[in-house]
Amino acid sequence: MLVAEKNSLTEEIEKMVEKHGATRAALMPVLQDIQRNHKYVSEFAQQEVARLLNIHPVEVYSVITFYSFLNSEPRGRNIVRLCQTITCDLIGKEIVAKAIERELGVKFGETTKDNRITLEFANCLGMCDQGPAMLVNDKVYTKLTPEKAVEILNKVK
Amino acid sequence: MENKKIKREGAVIFSEYKRGDSINKLKEISRDDVLFELKESGLKGRGGAGFPTSTKWMLTAAAKSDKKYIICNADEGEPGTFKDRVLLTDYPELVFDGMVVGGFTIGAKEGIVYLRGEYEYMLADLELYLNNMRKDNLLGNNIAGIDGFNFDIRIQLGSGAYVCGEETALIESLEGHRGEARNRPPFPVNTGFMGHPTSVNNVETLSAVTHIVLKGGSWFRQYGTNKSTGSKLFSVSGDCEKPGVYELPWGTTISELLEKVEAKDTKAVQVGGASGICLNKEQFSRTLGYEDIATGGSIIVFNKDRDMIHVLKNFMEFFVEESCGQCTPCRIGNTKLLEGVEMIEKGEFTFRYINELKELGKTMQVASKCGLGQSSPNSFISILNNFSEEIFNQGNGGTNGK
Ligand SMILES: Cc1cc2nc3c(=O)[nH]c(=O)nc-3n(C[C@H](O)[C@H](O)[C@H](O)COP(=O)(O)O)c2cc1C
Ligand code: SF4
Ligand code: FES
Q1: Helix or strand or coil: residue B94?
Q2: Which of A70, B142, B387, B392 could, after both became Cys, cross-link B308 (CB 3.0–4.6 A)?
Q3: Average pLDDT over every residue of B138-146
Q4: For residue range B189-234, what is the model confidence (pLDDT) as tens digits?
Q5: pLDDT tens track for B285-344
Q6: Cβ–Cβ < 8 Å for A120, A79
């Protein structure tokens, strides 16, 4: 990472800490903000959070690894999470997943070469009456068909 | 998402209510009155565990501390559950007014909504809603003109961990830790968020309180049964014509429910989500309620064409992923149960081993530290027992025997 990038990231995190408070209890909201803006929490970001909240970097890392929506490794610009749980599974998650994989040329768990999309499975999204369901970042899409899902992802920048 | 604000029918939760009414009622009544009505109502927690809400609030109210908290558990992660989503998006007045009543009753100045990360899309609307409450003096200082009644609500997001719905794991998460369940006792009512007395309540529980404060405990208990008072929201999904959220009185039978949602050729009904139990046709006359099948309200319907081993595998994969890994019975146990399901799927099992796994499941039910590991064997045991004929004798599980 360039020095200028590091400085701006530090500044960004300082603002987040100011907003949420410099306490341990602010850890999740701060990490969520970083994740939202950068799609992952880099090692440098982890160190900065640890420094500003006065906790050990290992603690920060261990929290990140616990939560499936927090990542310590880079992701694509957009994270797609298709529900893999039972009701969506019964109602066609598999054909939707296959269509998405064909269209994007990558498998679930992977990121497209242009870094546009990371594909992940998620557990029940609370949309079981309208499955199959997926999240694109924080937006939810329901009643997916293979065609509809691909159409939605084609529009993602 | 579907259109918002479809009109729903229901005697209790979905009955008429105008924002602020129960908060304004607090001008005329004391916290003891609220506790009395709650006790009278017989309301039990709707998050699954079914602990009496009046007792929980009484304990938190009685605990001595300069700070107390009321937490709304909006982590709704049980597969097949989405009623809290509907309450939060279409009936926020019920949820938030219930939190204000809770703050008043237990003496908390701060309420926290723990909103699952999957529901982040609701956040902007909910924040706006809270702001409007502040403008109208339904939050803030001297709420509704009640001298010294100061209370506010903030929302914190989860980050995709099912176990954080367990109340002590939820508190850990709020404090900035891994969502690992704590040993109990001490209970949150004494030592909760930041060590202060805390009442953790489900979204639906709080919504029920809102109505009870206004209409009375005896009004509430005229619905349902003796031990299971009031109504319950059921999230119905799977093989039926009309999936969705239904408000039904406790005491409704599975068959009555199936008829309502227009389910045809039903072979199995999973009650209580992945951690619940799976019923076969002979059991459809059983009733929903604390007398028979207590549940948080997830109902998943499977028709005659469904492969029950495939269903069970999906559940066990869920638990292997979502176990926090803290204690051995749950961490290792769920992996072993999943392996067992895969053996059945492939037709590579012995009955002796499957029986050993059922015993392992029973050990997990007693030896696991929190409700996740205590309930994850439920579907394993009930599916293998209730569908043994098709799984083992007809070889209908996966490629098993084919
Ligand atoms: C693994 C696990 C997940 C849970 N998830 C939720 C949940 O998403 N929402 C909820 O209200 N309760 C959940 N609970 C139950 C809570 O621990 C707690 O009992 C409940 O929030 C209390 O509120 P109530 O008394 O209003 O039901 C869960 C329990 C366990 C063991
Ligand atoms: S039972 Fe499972 S989820 Fe609960 S504490 Fe033990 S390992 Fe964690
Ligand atoms: S099972 Fe997919 S949203 Fe619930």
Answers
A1: helix
A2: B387
A3: 98
A4: 999 999 999 999 999 999 999 999 999 999 999 999 999 999 999 9
A5: 999 999 999 999 999 999 999 999 999 999 999 999 999 999 999 999 999 999 999 999
A6: yes
**Residue ranges making up the domain that contains A148:** 78-156
In a domain, B102, yes or no: yes
Phi/psi of residue A103, each to 5°?
-65, -40
Residue ending a domain, among B303, B333, B349, is B303
Count other C-beta atoms under 10 Å from residue B30's C-beta. Answer: 11
Between CA B39 and CA A93 the distance in angstroms is 45
In this prediction, does ipTM exceed 0.90?
yes
For A84-117, write each residue's pLDDT tens digit.
Answer: 999 999 999 999 999 999 999 999 999 999 999 9
When CB atoms are compared, the residue of B85, B156, B177 closest to A126 is B85
Residues of A with Cβ-Cβ distance to B194 under 8 angstroms = 25
Beta strands B277-280 and B266-271 are antiparallel
Residue B260 sits in a domain whose CATH number is 3.10.20.600
A79 Cβ below 6 A of ligand 3: no
Residues of chain B contacting A66 with CB distance shorter than 8 Å: 161, 178-180, 324
Give the ligand whose atoms come closest to the C-alpha of residue B51. 1
